[in-house]
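WARN retry 2 of 3 for item q-0093 after timeout on previous attempt; input resubmitted unchanged.
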Amino acid sequence: MRKIISYAILGLFTLLLACERDEGDSRVVIPDFNYPQTVVFNPSLSSYRIFTGNPASLVPDSSFQLLELNASLYSDYSSKQRLVSIPEGTEISKQADGALSFPDGSILVKTFYYWNDARDTSLGKRIIESRLLIKERNTWNAASYLWDSTQTEAYLRLDGHDLPISWVNASGQNRSTMYHVPNENECIACHQSNDKMSPLGPKLRNLNRQVERNGSSLNQIQHLQNLGLLSNFDLSEVSEIIDYNDPSQSLSSRGRSYLEMNCAHCHNPSGWDPAARQDLDFRYSTPFAQSGIGAEKDRISDLLRSGEMPFIGTTLRHEEGLSLMINYLNSL
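OK item q-0093 returned
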C-alpha cells in the first residue's frame, strides 16, 4: 500500500510540474516563498571586494578562501569556483550531523563560467554569474550577480535571466544552450531546509579531501583549521562522499553520491515540501533501506530519462550523469 501511495504522489507531482511549464520551457514555476530577508544586497559585485586584480582572472582577495568539493551539482556543464569569507575573530563550527554552522557575516560565493575551448584553457573563459549567500541575524540570504560583457563587473539580478552560451568541450564538440540565471525564489526552492535557507555544497563530508595550497598537498579541512576558519576536531570523526565521476569507485557509491548532490537538496524530509512529502530521502548518509530508492527505482529512472528531474538549474540533460544513474538503478 505504501508503495502505491508513493507512486501516486510522485505521479501527481510530475503532472503538476508538467502543467506549470510554459510551452517550450523546461523549467517549473516556483511559488513565492516570502522568506524573511536580513540583507540588502549591493547593486554591484565589486563592492564586496571578492577578487583582486583583473576580476576576470577570478583571483580571490586574501579575505576569501577557496573551497573544493569531492562531488558537485551538475549545472549545464559549467565550471565553478567556490569561495568563503567569515568575519575576523570568528570561526565555522562542526555540527553533530556533519553540517557546518557559519557565523553571522559569512559570505559564500559560487562563480559559474565556461572555458571558450576546454581543450586549451589559455584561450580564456566566459564568466556568467556569481551567486552569493550572506548570513546575517542567523538567516541566509541569496542573490545572483550577472557578469557584463567586459568581464570586469557583475550586477545584481534577482528576477532571473536567460542568455545564450556557446563553448567547445574537452572532446572538441561545439556546445550551446540558453543559460538560466535563477531568480530569488528558485534559489530558495533548492536551498531551503526546515523552511530556512541553507548552504548545500560545503558540508564536511564534501570538503574532506586533499587539496593543493601554497605548493603543498594537505587535507582541506585541516587547512581550514590551520587558518583558524574552522573549529578544531578530530578528522577521523568526518566521513567522506566520493566523486561520482570517478570510475574506480563502486557503482552504488557513485549512484548515491550523484543523488546526494543533484537531488537530495529537495528530496529529503527537511526539503521543499512537495518533494519532502514523497517518501524519498536521497541523502548520502541515509541507509539504503530508508531512502526509498529501491522501491521507486523505476519511477526515478523514468523521471531522469524524461528530463522532468532535476527541474531547476539545468537546460541540458547531463548525459554522463544519466548513464551513471541508469546503470546504478538497473543494478538494484
